[in-house]
Design a protein that fits this description.
The chain has 10 helices and 2 strands. The chain is mainly α. Strands 1-2 form a two-stranded parallel sheet.
Length: about 260
């Protein structure tokens, strides 16, 4: 007689918690999570705004620097008070931007793969660096170019006496718009990593990007002067090609690791 067969061994594979991505949540839970993240972002902005009020006068002095010899006027009672609150809010928004960006990425985190999750930290860091770079570029290049054009255009006709509120609205809008425009490479990289767009497809649409950059330069530039529009549209176009290069490198890295 043949000996009885040995026991059948079944190998049990246990996945690590970080490998489990298909966790279903009800719609109500998703909405509750979104509400919590929005509240955290608003609280962070509010806290940073109150902290910026302590340093609001040095901030206003710094923002006035590109105007050089221009004299600013307070044209209504309490105008500088409202200006101070506005400057503090924009400063708080700038400080909170990385945290707000992180909250947005963390909300979509469960729908990403493990490799895509590893990009969250670098994406947040790159977003903060690019946003600050955009602010510096606007303050050091765009604002002086725009002010130089506007002052010289009517220097022989009118004496430049500007409202402090109108001036700071102009500077802050231009800086924030430029900082947001500098997020383009991060957005491209995230779209490329998630497989929504490939770098060759991005590169093939470069003509539309150049046209869109010119339109964005005209819309985002409060002064509407040609020098500032050209500088901003050129920066957006350059950032687009940088983003295409990053997507190409990410695709090459992904193909090598497969």
């Amino acid at each position: 007689m043949l000996p009885p067969p040995g026991p059948i061994k079944i190998k049990k594979v246990i996945k690590a918690p970080e490998d489990l991505n298909d966790i279903e949540m009800p719609l109500v839970d998703h909405l509750e999570e979104l509400r919590q993240r929005i509240l955290r972002s608003l609280f962070c902005i509010l806290l940073a705004t109150f902290a910026s009020l302590i340093f609001v006068k040095p901030l206003v002095t710094l923002l006035e620097a590109p105007a050089r010899s221009i004299h600013f006027l307070q044209l209504a009672p309490g105008e500088f008070l409202f200006v101070s609150l506005k400057v503090a809010f924009y400063a708080g928004l700038t400080i909170s931007m990385p945290f707000v960006f992180y909250q947005g990425l963390a909300f979509i985190l469960p729908g990403l793969t493990n490799k895509e999750k590893k990009l969250i930290g670098p994406a947040v860091a790159a977003s903060a660096i690019l946003f600050i770079t955009g602010l510096i570029f606007a303050w050091s290049s765009l604002v002086p170019a725009a002010l130089g054009f506007l002052v010289n255009y009517g220097a022989d006709v009118v004496e430049p006496l500007w409202s402090i509120e109108k001036y700071l609205d102009f500077v802050l809008m231009l800086m924030i718009a430029t900082g947001l425009a500098f997020q383009l490479p991060v957005l491209q990289l995230l779209l490329g990593v998630m497989g929504l767009v490939r770098w060759k497809k991005m590169l093939s649409s470069w003509r539309w990007v150049v046209i869109s950059a010119a339109i964005a330069g005209a819309v985002l530039t409060p002064s509407t002067d040609p020098i500032t529009m050209l500088l901003l549209s050129g920066a957006i176009t350059t950032l687009f090609f940088v983003g295409v290069g990053l997507v190409a490198l990410s695709e090459q890295f992904r193909e090598q690791t497969l």
